[in-house]
Amino acid sequence: MEEKKEVTTEEKKEEAKKPETKGGISGFLKRKNIEISLKRYGIDALGAMAQGLFCSLLIGTIINTIGTQFHIGFLTTPVATISGIDYTVGGLASAMSGPAMAVAIGYALKCPPLVLFSLISVGFASNALGGAGGPLAVLFIAILAAEIGKAVSKETKVDILVTPLVTIGVGIFLSWAIAPPLGALALKLGDAIKWATVQQPFIMGIIVSVLVGMALTLPISSAAICAALGLTGLAGGAAVAGCSAQMIGFAVISFKENKWGGLISQGIGTSMLQMGNIVKNPRIWIAPTLASAVTGPIATCLFKLEMNGAPVSSGMGTCGLVGQIGVYTGWINEMAEGSRTAITAMDWTGLVLISVVLPAVLSLVFHLIVKKLGWVKDGDMKLS
Fold it and tell me: Which among 95, 339, 363, 372 could disulfide-bond with 249, CB atoms 3.0 to 4.6 Å apart, if both were Cys?
């Protein structure tokens, strides 16, 4: 008879460290934390991309605006010259938008360090080759490169070479192959929306305001969508109106339940905080959404409100007043270009009414109606 070999404690530990081989492809994907789902890509990755964009392009734009308006020499004087191009402090931050978006996406996808750091190059390439539609190219290419990088991560004894080579190689190849057409597609779609808004400001004012506003409240990123489509101009103004209506609307109609903390966290934070309550009672969403359907066409038809700052601002609403800063930045750019001579009292009146006053008043009126119908009751919007 064959003598049984005794398994030591150390051998058991080594066996436990070995990767699970059962389960085929599904087991491999689970072991690599590769989750092919709408939530992982359409919510987690998209939302993270918006944060990366905020921490680079948007912050850079805000820094440049502050420097210009307050005549701060350090912020307006070039601090670096690269390939003949002068960069200010804000310009350097904005130039890193591609890498920032890609790394943010990698973080959301739970990439191991070597994959995450390799995405810096991938983000730069995809954003640069994607042109005006760079953010959309970054979203698709960073996801693909990250997941392929995760698949090969720690599968060889020379991981420090293989993982970066595969991640960057795949990312650069995809950037060369599909970033330009993806960017062109995003640009055409964004231009089509902007063209339609100019041709039909009333109808498109409603559609853009409602859809982008709802996207802001949903657990997806309205900012990333607007950035990917390059949504500016009248369409950008309608988007700002819709997002502001959701945020200010929920902040005001839930004041009884959430007091000042809720007013601030929703009014200049995010209306996404109400998502759990919306799932319980979708009718609480009626008042802010109807308010956005009214403020959108008022913005496009009456005040001709345009958002010509960074496209990401269109999907931010009153979050940190980024949407309003974007509108103001657009005014400043227009004055610098000579297409605008001054910022008028009508401009400021329209911005304040569309961003704060009308959303608050209209949401309260609609909220009283839905409460009277018995569709919403006290406590339905209480934040935990």
Answer: 363
